[in-house]
Amino acid sequence: MSKYTRALYPGTFDPITVGHLDIIKRAYKMFDEIIIAVADSQAKKPMFSLEQRVHMAKAATMDLPNIKVIGFHKLLVDLSDELDANILVRGLRAVSDFEYELQMGYANASLKKDLETVFLMPSLEYGYVSSSVVRSILPFNGKVDHLLHPTVHKMIKEYRS
């Protein structure tokens, strides 16, 4: 008998990009349910509010069944307990990502022994895409449509007008 697997994909998603969606779609093939957990992350001073980021993530994934999107402001291990999800999905683009994510994975494991972290590399065409790249282009009204889901791109235009 197979066990139902629920994975958390936590992040700030400020905003959610095609790189994030690539990871979500690939993780979707591995797990029965994915919960996109949008972190409040006020320490990072996000460009978009938590509500806007949750709304964008929901819009970008609305065509994928068994994907849920929630906002959170607590320890990830506590959230994983609440949601009965002992798998974290994280994307790795570069060595610098790996160093940070390895540290976070060990820290989470020290707080909850049965919490596993699964690392996925983005598809080659998305290796350079990040929310920070999008945020650095937006103030100059530069082209970002190729970095975002079309609905998210439209929402960002509305939020910024």
- Report strand %: 15-25%
General shape: globular
- What's the total count of β strands? 5
Mean pLDDT over all positions: 94
- Portion in helices: 40-55%
Number of domains: 1
Secondary-structure arrangement, i.e. CATH architecture: 3-Layer(aba) Sandwich
What is the rounded Rg? Answer: 15 Å
Low-confidence stretches: none
**Helix count from the secondary structure assignment:** 6
- Widest beta sheet: strand line-up: 3-2-1-4-5
Please summarize the sheet with the most strands. 5 strands, parallel
What is the helix/strand order? EHEHEHEHEHH
Distance between the termini: 52 Å
Q: Structural class, please?
A: alpha/beta
CATH-derived topology = Rossmann fold
The CATH C-level name is Alpha Beta
Textual characterization of the structure:
With 161 residues, the chain is an alpha/beta fold. It has helices at 18-28, 50-61, 76-83, 95-111, 131-137, 150-160, and strands at 6-11, 33-39, 67-72, 87-91, 116-120. The mean pLDDT is 94.
Indicate the topology.
Blueprint: E1 6-11, H1 18-28, E2 33-39, H2 50-61, E3 67-72, H3 76-83, E4 87-91, H4 95-111, E5 116-120, H5 131-137, H6 150-160
Parallel strand pairs: 1-2, 1-4, 2-3, 4-5
